[in-house]
């Protein structure tokens, strides 16, 4: 394990602690969904993406869209830690008149946000539009879209998948945070989701599966140069909902449950972080 | 009208490298000139309108000026949430063109009719809504839409619509164009029914009633100055549209009128009924079924005018 990987894991633990604390203090749900995608977000923002937080509108920046917008609490922490805005701004989370809601706002309202999501199935089409724009404008940025597994119920995801493959938009990567749960049940039971990797492959994507909590695998796959006129890349990232805190892991009650003070303290101990 | 659209968008594509044309698998050969003149900026998005709208928003967020073109119900009701969230919430310059709107495709049945689009588009924050009367207004609408920094919806007809002669061809979004002067009643038309409205004005003239006629190429923002002038100076103000009487231009004017101090003019609204047309018929048949004929408009306006004067 490299020192870089260790450093990223340390950031991930810190961010997990802050997400849980925010949920406790502001009564914000979707904790399980946030914790499952933290490692993916850290690998993206602290390793793979070519971005400069001091230039959030740089036309050549890489784009990252959190299409599973209910993971906003995780994204807000990551963007602050990256330096898009002061971490102190997050003290206004959930307050009346504030900007930090349960889903990402529009880009003109918060630096670092590329698209306002929350209604599922919107991020991949928008990301595809951005990737096609790079081709038209002769720019070299990449676009990465993070989807939920439940989100893959939406038909627009597959419309977009077909067009991306048809247009050979190899600068586009879709990562599925495959935590095996959606709001009310196992994602493989609610609809016939699987076989998920084969589905992306059948739709014309270069599809692969990885451990979505393995920082080295994540930085490797996200950091690879993309074949800009080849197949778009799908990464099915196997994750655990509520990852990082034993009593939250793979327990779908934490889709909506809010941790109390004792649970927050226990989470801090498990994560090895302090308030 | 669709040929004029293809011609105008071809010109705009040449003069503005930000213009990208997205089609929902229609317009076979119609856009060959655009494709040749603006290589790489025509994308057939297939029969997948939700994705097409999101793609357009992503392009607009990246500095391009996407123009979406397909049959009206499929570029409005089919992907309404993408219009609301991706285009309007982000407030990005996506131009949505609905072709064959209203009852243009009467013979194709209600799946292809669009008598709800003005209502659902104008309720969306940030959206501009336009319905050009003819190809001259269509070209003006398109050029003006490209100067906007937010989403624009333009509903157009199909082909062969007659051009309405005007003294004044100045064009501004949200500013109606006067096409006929008159002293007794005011007729407000929007979209391709404008020639019918002018015909009704001629019929009224034969009965000694002179009608002012305004072309409302813009539904939103509403031209309140012209509406106020109409209700202040005329006995009857008739709104004529190939759209449901619920929620369209007539509905918009009614919303405004209801909140004013008592005004002189009485509102008459001509549009389609609150139903789906199950029987087969041409556009002319469908218009007649819903009373969208010069005879019916003139008769109703004449009766209302007589009542006000009595």
The major pleated sheet of chain B works out as: 7 strands, mixed
| Uncertain runs of chain B | none
Order of the strands making up the biggest sheet of chain B: 2-1-3-4-6-5-10
Q: Structural class of the secondary elements of chain A?
A: alpha/beta
Q: How many domains is the backbone of chain A divided into?
A: 1
- Please give the alpha-carbon distance between the first and last residues of chain B: 43 Å
Q: Numbering strands along the chain, what is their spatial order in the largest sheet of chain A?
A: 1-2-3-7-6
Q: How many beta-strand elements of chain B? A: 12
One letter per element, helices H and strands E, the order of chain A comes to: HHHEHHEHEEEHHEHEH
Radius of gyration computed on alpha carbons of chain A: 18 Å
Q: How much helix is in the residues of chain A?
A: 40-55%
CATH architecture of the largest domain in chain B: 3-Layer(aba) Sandwich
CATH homology superfamily name of the largest domain in chain B: Thiamin diphosphate (ThDP)-binding fold, Pyr/PP domains
Rg of chain B, rounded, reads 19 Å
The CATH topology label of chain A is Rossmann fold
Largest sheet of chain A: 5 strands, parallel
Share of residues in strands of chain A:
5-15%
Query: Would you tell me the overall average pLDDT of chain B?
Result: 97
Enter the CATH topology name of the largest domain in chain B. Rossmann fold
The SSE order of chain B reads HEHEHEHHEHEHEEEHEEHEHEHH
Residues in helix, % of chain B: 25-40%
Features:
heterodimer; A: 275 residues; alpha/beta; Rossmann fold; five-stranded parallel β-sheet; two-stranded antiparallel ribbon; 10 helices; 7 strands; 12% strand; B: 310 residues; 2 domains; five-stranded mixed β-sheet; 12 helices
């Amino acid at each position: 394990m490299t020192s870089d990987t260790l450093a990223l894991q340390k950031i991930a633990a810190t961010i997990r602690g802050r997400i849980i604390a925010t949920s406790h203090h502001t009564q914000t749900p979707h904790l399980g969904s946030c914790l499952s995608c933290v490692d993916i977000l850290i690998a993206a923002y602290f390793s793979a993406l070519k971005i400069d937080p001091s230039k959030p509108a740089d036309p050549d920046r890489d784009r990252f869209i959190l299409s599973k917008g209910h993971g906003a609490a995780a994204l807000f922490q990551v963007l602050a830690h990256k330096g898009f805005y002061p971490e102190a701004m997050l003290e206004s989370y959930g307050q009346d008149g504030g900007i930090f809601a349960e889903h990402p706002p529009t880009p003109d309202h918060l630096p670092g946000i590329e698209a306002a999501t929350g209604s599922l199935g919107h991020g991949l089409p928008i990301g595809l539009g951005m990737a096609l724009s790079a081709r038209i404008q002769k720019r070299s940025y990449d676009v990465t879209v993070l989807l939920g597994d439940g989100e893959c119920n939406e038909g627009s995801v597959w419309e977009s998948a077909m067009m991306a493959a048809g247009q050979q938009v190899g600068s586009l990567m879709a990562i599925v945070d495959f935590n095996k749960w959606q709001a009310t049940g196992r994602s493989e039971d609610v609809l016939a989701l699987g076989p998920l990797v084969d589905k992306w492959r059948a739709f014309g994507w270069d599809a692969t599966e990885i451990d979505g909590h393995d920082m080295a695998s994540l930085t490797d796959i996200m950091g690879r140069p993309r074949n800009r006129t080849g197949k778009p890349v799908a990464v099915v990232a196997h994750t655990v909902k509520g990852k990082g805190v034993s009593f939250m892991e793979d327990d779908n009650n934490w889709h909506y449950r809010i941790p109390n003070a004792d649970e927050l303290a226990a989470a801090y101990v498990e994560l090895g972080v302090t308030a | 009208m669709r040929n004029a659209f293809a011609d105008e968008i071809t010109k705009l594509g040449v003069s503005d490298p930000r213009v990208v044309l997205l089609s929902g698998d229609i317009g076979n050969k119609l856009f060959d000139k655009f494709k040749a003149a603006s290589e790489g900026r025509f994308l057939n998005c297939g029969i997948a309108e939700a994705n097409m709208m999101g793609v357009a928003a992503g392009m607009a967020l990246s500095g391009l000026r996407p123009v979406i073109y397909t049959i009206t119900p499929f570029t409005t009701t089919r992907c309404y949430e993408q219009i609301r969230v991706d285009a309007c919430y982000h407030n990005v310059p996506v131009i949505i063109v609905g072709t064959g709107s209203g009852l243009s495709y009467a013979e194709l049945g209600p799946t292809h009719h669009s008598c709800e689009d003005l209502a659902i588009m104008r309720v969306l924050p940030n959206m501009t809504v336009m319905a050009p009367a003819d190809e001259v207004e269509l070209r003006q609408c398109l050029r003006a839409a490209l100067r906007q920094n937010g989403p624009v919806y333009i509903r157009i007809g199909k082909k062969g619509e007659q051009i309405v002669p005007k003294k004044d061809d100045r064009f501004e979004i949200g500013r109606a164009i006067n096409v006929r002067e008159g002293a007794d009643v005011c007729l407000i038309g929007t979209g391709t029914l404008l020639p019918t409205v002018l015909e009704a004005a001629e019929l009224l003239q034969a009965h000694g009633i002179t009608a002012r006629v305004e072309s409302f190429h813009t539904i939103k923002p509403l031209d309140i100055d012209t509406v106020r002038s109409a209700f202040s100076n005329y006995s009857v103000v008739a709104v004529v549209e190939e759209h449901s009487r619920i929620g369209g231009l007539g509905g918009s004017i009614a919303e405004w009128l209801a909140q004013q101090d008592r005004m002189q003019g009485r509102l008459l609204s001509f549009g389609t009924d609150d139903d789906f047309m199950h029987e087969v018929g041409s556009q002319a048949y469908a218009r007649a079924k819903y009373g969208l004929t010069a005879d019916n408009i003139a008769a109703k306006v004449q009766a209302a005018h007589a009542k006000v004067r009595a």
